[in-house]
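Recall that a protein's primary structure is simply its ordered list of amino acids. Everything else, from secondary elements to tertiary packing, is in principle encoded there. The following example makes that idea concrete.
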Amino acid sequence: MKLPSMPRGLAAGAARGAGRLSQRLGRGGGTALPGLVLTRLRPEATAEMARAVPNGVILVSGTNGKTTTARLVRAVLDASGARVVANTAGSNLERGVATALLNDDGAEVALFEADEAALPGLIGQTRPRVVTLMNLFRDQLDRHGELEHLVERWRAAVDGLDPATTVVYNADDPAVAEIAAGHPNTVSYGIDDPRAGRDRLPHAADTTECRRCGARLRYDMVTIAHLGRWSCPECALARTLVDVGAAKVELHGMDGQRLALATPGGPMEMSLRLPGLHNAYNAAAAAATALALGLSPESIGPALARRQAAFGRAERTQVGPTRVTTLLAKNPAGANENIRTMLLEDRPLHLLVLLNDRTADGQDVSWIWDVDYELLLEGDRLASLTVGGDRAHDMALRFRYGGLSPDRLAVVPPVPDAFDAALAACGADGGLYVLPTYTALLEFKALLADRGLAPQFWEDG
């Protein structure tokens, strides 16, 4: 029997109390529990609170990059003087969105990153003003199923959008582009600089066939995984000219990049603190979203340039003489891009890889065999390697099959011990790269906080 909804005030009070208790007991930052309690007691609460935000809701979703892109959009909104409510800590299911709205204090606009599987439900709940669709890669197969399943859910959600909603989409992703193509109000973005292209489609690419006719796609330029300048040789589907294009991408290793965007409002040039080609995509997505909101083109570039990395996404922490750079690596596309970005550095590479298989990571870790770890072994670039986490031995086996000698590999499953071992292995070289899966990232961030080296993840705005 379905229970009646609790009155709004009583439900909100109970939810806030649950959040305070969670923090007091050290069980987390209260970024999800209040929303979970609230929506159990009053299922319509998310929709009610979303409708009360005067300038509407922005949803940002994709397999990779949504946290960083949402932070970049937030930077532009903040620079405009708007009062924003956002799920900054990255709790991106409905419970996290509900928690953020519950704690809202007179915001004018709402900005939420949305888990790709939760996006259709959140679209229905929030009736967004703008939806930003970034990319779809294989990730958490035991939770999401095959990529085709997510593609069909996104297509149905976009088909059901109000025509007035603006869909910002990545034209370089064939699946995302095909989903957005029929919507009447869109802003597209992509990478146009031919220097950013790679010579061939990687073996781990996901979308390689036409979504309309099934023919194998042809690529004139490949950027990341299956992203790039693509076309179908059998039908008219193709990557078209984009509204916001990265005309120039100059990567400067871990120090960031120089980016020039061509937009309908004129060119934007900026120096980003965020490294890697994936962050060029994130910046283009953020600029396109900001333009869709009607924000001034002159204000967008400077705001993006000021933004630092989100926690665990090329975040840097100084630990004594060692600079620790954390790069979330949760699927083949993201891990491969992290590796290529690290290889732009001219220093020896000391690496700590943390592999967990918990619910938020996906319990199937077979994806590590599609990561190009062999690139780290070319030219003897890898100075030290420590592997840790729940599935440390699986990761060790992956590197052994990749050709790494066992005497160059330390297997230390507990995260604190693995971190200490990796720091010791750095010696005087002074730089450590940490590649954790999602729950390992949370463990690692908590470890840094416990040692007084960084704030807790929910305090990272």
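The mean pLDDT is 93. Residues 101 and 327 are 29 Å apart (CA to CA).
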